[in-house]
Every structure is written in C-alpha cells, then in structure tokens.
C-alpha cells in the first residue's frame, strides 16, 4: 500500500502544495503509558494516544481540559517539552479510520506538557502555519486517505515518521488559515454554549426526577397516597432469549433483533440486525431494558421486535407506562448495586421483578408526573437536534474550507 501514489489535489492558485516534512520538525516523545499517569491538575502533563483518539477533538485546550500528569516527574527530559501550537498525532490505531488522528495544543501558557507512548509530536519549523490551523489541515480528505494508504498493520494500524513526512497537502496563505480558524471558532462557541445549555437542562430534569418520582415534591392538586410495590407486581416482565446466530442477517429478513444497548439509541430501539428465528418477542411501545452489561439501559420498542437474552421487555399492567419508563431512566445508574458476575455483569428475572419502587396509587398522578418529565425530555431532545445540526454544519464547513472549495472573505 505504501507505493500507492497520492491523488493529485486541485486547489486555488494562491495555495501552496507542500510535503508535511517541509512544514514540521519532529519533537522527541516519551514512552509513558497509563500506569505512569495520574490526575492531579498540576505537574508534567502527558498526552496519551488513547485520549487523542477518544477524548480530545482537534485541540487539547488547557482552558477547558486537564490532561493526566506524570507520577514520577524525573522521567522526562527538557527536549520532550511541547509548546503552544505543537501537534500530537497518535501513531497507532485499532481501525483504519483512526490513522493520523491528531490534536493541537491550545492555551498551554506556562504549563509543561509532553507526548507519551505511541505518539508523534511535531512543530512548525518555518512559520508556514498559524496556531489553530495545524490540527485542521490533517482533516483534508486527500491527506487522510494518503495516511491510510501508507499505514501498516500488525495487530494495530500504524504510520511511520518517514511516511508522514512524504505526504502532500495544499496549504493556504497564513491570512486565509487565520480566517478559517476564526470561522470554525464561531461554530465551536455556538456548539459549546448549546452543550452547556443541554447539560443544564439535563441536570434540571434529573432534579425533577429525584423530587417527583420519590414523592418528595407533589404536583398541584395531587394529595393521594403512595405505596411501595415491586416492579413485577405492576408490570409484566418478559426476559429475552437469543436465537441462533445462524439466523442473523442484515437483509431485513425476519424480525428486528434487539439484544443489547447497541440496539438502543436515543431511548429508541433501532434496526441493526434481523433474525429469521423468532424466540421471544415484544410489541411496539414496550419498554426494553438491558439485563447484561451495561445493565439498565432503557428505550421504547419502535416496532414489534424479537428480544435476545441481553434485554427484557416491560409492560405495565397496573401502572402508567410513561411513569414506569421515567422511573427506569432515573434508576439506570443504580442497577450496579444488583449486577452479578465479574466479566459480564448481569441481572436476572428475579432482580428485575423484585425491584422496589414507590408510586402514587392514583394513575392520574402517575400520568401527571410523567407528563412533566416528558416535557422536560422533549425540550432536551429539541436542543440535541439543534446541536447535531450545528455539528453537521461545522463538519461541512471544515471540509470545504481546508480544501479551498469555499474561500473566506478577507474581512472575516
């Protein structure tokens, strides 16, 4: 694969075609792994390759994020210290898509930071790039594709320093780079603000749940009695049973199979796998809850489905369905007290049926409580839709700006 030629890139005439090796010098990295790190908000900060893949997006912004620090601060050299704007790239990835994932240091100030195991650290050597643009330039589809082409595989995908330096990219003039960063920062600020608003709404909803689902706070006009029941006393519980894996397919043959949290997204079951062998089933509208790790994830069946052993179906017979659904969402983090097993934690039918909860005797009050919480849920869902739209817009802009398909006006 390393002999494959990089596709010729088209670009605006005033953009420059260069190799990454003409732009960057390598900075020595260290071999520190997770066991060498701790979280203490000070000391010598370390960028771990796993966090490059999963925790950071484009930047390690020290105004927002505190990376882990070295346990033993005598295990690095001054030459390992990074500077503002340095780029850290993970040189190992479990999948091809992750090859070349990189982050840029931002708002480092006078803090000390190094790059750890399975990383490259590079620094602009001639001022050809502006701060904030370096991590973005590697998102260019041509660069990303070339990194994947020259990667090698041995248990994980990797890329060598030599391959990295020979990759071509198109580089806009510095003023254009700065304007690109400014435009994308506008979207970042909007995304951050909306994310904080969603978090606030989620915390408010969590507080409402704690108050309303325990009877600590009563809604106006409600004064009836509450009583303690077991889930199995007010609901029909149907534990799943997995069909043979030979019956699984992606051709929509048979019935949708729901067997774990991978089949529940945004509190709804999804179509992922179908089965022609029908074991246990659940009707559309049933509450579906995972009973194997992670235990307690709940959603609503969007159609008649086949349920595997990793889930159960819950249908209230003497309680309001929305109320029970909201209670199970509230109870999700508490299932860890019931989990059994060391490798694959799980709960059984007895655990689920025996779950104790206090509920209003009045179905009317249950319905009223569920309505308040559903309204809060709907507000959060609407905001999450706006957030997804902003992220899609930013993704489109990023791709268009760094490839020169869209040019920024000079007064940005």
- State the share of residues found in helices, binned by percent: 25-40%
Name the poorly predicted regions: none
Shape: elongated
- Strand neighbour order, sheet with most strands: 2-11-7-9-5
Biggest beta-sheet profile: 5 strands, mixed
> How large is the share of residues in beta strands?
15-25%
Radius of gyration: 26 Å
Q: In total, how many beta strands?
A: 27
Number of domains: 3
Mean pLDDT reading: 93
Report the top-level CATH class of the largest domain: Alpha Beta
CATH architecture title of the largest domain: Alpha-Beta Complex
Explained architecture:
- The chain has 412 residues and is α+β, with helices and mostly antiparallel strands.
- It has helices at residues 20-23, 49-54, 134-137, 141-150, 161-165, 174-212, 231-234, 321-331, 349-353, 363-402, and strands at residues 16-19, 24-27, 37-38, 44-47, 59-61, 69-70, 87-90, 92-93, 102-106, 112-115, 119-124, 152-154, 156-158, 168-171, 226-230, 235-239, 248-249, 255-258, 264-265, 268-269, 273-275, 280-282, 287-290, 298-300, 305-307, 311-316, 356-360.
- The chain has three domains: 16-171, Adenine-n6-DNA-methyltransferase TaqI, Chain A, domain 2, CATH 3.90.220.20; 172-218 and 362-406, Helix Hairpins (Orthogonal Bundle), CATH 1.10.287; 225-360, Alpha-Beta Complex (Adenine-n6-DNA-methyltransferase TaqI, Chain A, domain 2), CATH 3.90.220.
- The protein is built from ten helices and 27 strands.
- The strands form nine sheets. A five-stranded mixed sheet has the order 2-11-7-9-5.
- A hairpin with a 1-residue loop joins strand 12 (152-154) and strand 13.
């Amino acid at each position: 694969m390393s002999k494959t030629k990089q596709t010729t890139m088209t670009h605006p005439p005033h953009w420059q075609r260069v190799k990454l090796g003409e732009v960057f010098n390598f900075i020595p990295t260290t071999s520190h792994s997770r066991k060498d790190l701790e979280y203490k908000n000070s000391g010598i900060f370390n960028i771990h390759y796993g966090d490059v893949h999963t925790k950071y997006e484009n930047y390690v912004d020290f105004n927002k994020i505190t990376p882990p620090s070295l346990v033993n601060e005598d295990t690095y050299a001054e030459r390992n210290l990074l500077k503002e704007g340095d780029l850290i790239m993970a040189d190992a990835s479990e999948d091809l898509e992750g090859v070349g994932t990189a982050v840029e240091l931002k708002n480092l100030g006078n803090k000390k930071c190094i790059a750890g195991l399975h990383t490259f650290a590079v620094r602009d050597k001639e001022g050809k790039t502006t701060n904030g643009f370096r991590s973005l330039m590697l998102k260019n589809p041509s660069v990303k594709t070339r990194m994947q082409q020259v990667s090698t595989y041995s248990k994980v995908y990797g890329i060598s320093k030599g391959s990295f330096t020979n990759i071509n990219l198109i580089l806009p003039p510095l003023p254009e780079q700065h304007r690109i960063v400014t435009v994308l920062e506008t979207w970042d600020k909007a995304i951050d603000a909306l994310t904080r608003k969603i978090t606030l709404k989620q915390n408010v909803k969590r507080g409402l749940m704690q108050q309303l689902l325990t009877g600590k706070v009563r809604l106006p006009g409600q004064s009836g009695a509450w009583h303690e029941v077991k889930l199995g006393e007010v609901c029909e519980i149907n534990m799943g049973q997995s069909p043979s894996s030979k019956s699984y397919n992606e051709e929509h043959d048979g019935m949708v199979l729901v067997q774990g949290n991978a089949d529940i997204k945004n509190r709804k079951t999804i179509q992922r796998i179908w089965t022609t062998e029908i074991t246990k089933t659940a009707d559309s509208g049933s509450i579906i809850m995972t009973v194997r790790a992670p235990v307690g994830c709940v959603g609503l069946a969007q159609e008649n489905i086949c349920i595997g052993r990793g889930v159960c179906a819950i249908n209230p017979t003497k309680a309001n369905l929305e109320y029970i659904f909201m209670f199970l969402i509230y109870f999700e983090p508490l299932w860890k007290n019931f989990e059994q097993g060391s490798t694959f934690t799980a709960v059984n039918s007895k655990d689920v049926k025996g779950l104790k909860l206090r509920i209003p005797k009045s179905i009317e009050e249950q319905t009223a409580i569920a309505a308040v919480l559903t309204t809060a849920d709907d507000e959060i869902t609407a905001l999450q839709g706006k957030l997804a739209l902003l992220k899609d817009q930013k993704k489109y802009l990023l791709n268009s700006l760094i490839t020169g398909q869209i040019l920024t006006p000079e007064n940005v």
